[in-house]
Amino acid sequence: MDLQLADVRDYLEQMRIPLRLSCVTESGWPMILSLWYLYEEGALLCATRETAKIVSFLKHDPRCAFEISGEIPPYSGIRGQATASILPERGSEVLARLLVRYLGDTDKPLARRLLAHSESEVAIKIEPVNLFTWDFTKRMKDSVNGQALQGKAVSRPLEKGASS
Asked: Is the pTM of the predicted complex or chain greater than 0.85?
């Protein structure tokens, strides 16, 4: 994928799928989980409960890796190595923004349930150190389910403010 930084930013802002975040646990075993994300000023922001194991793992070792890619051909995506920091003061704010991004608003039952406990949320800030991209749009141009947006593959192209 020969994308410029602006294309990477557009891709990250446009995708409405969870990122996969990996880290190493305190026992030394790798772990991976999926989280909703926002792209903000070169970093990815996620939210989770302060008691989630990922929080203690990232506090112990902030090195991590991530991937954002669709599951519908033609395949494309972004992955990278990063450092993560835990931001307790931004947990509620990031959670509310994630709910709007992924659910469309904060008035849905799931959103209300999560917001009822937002004081226990923390933000995870993922700052990429290395980025890798791939795009099989040309190679998979005949794929049945894939959609392409001006040569850059996306799972579901959405306009700003739209939700899936």
From this structure: no
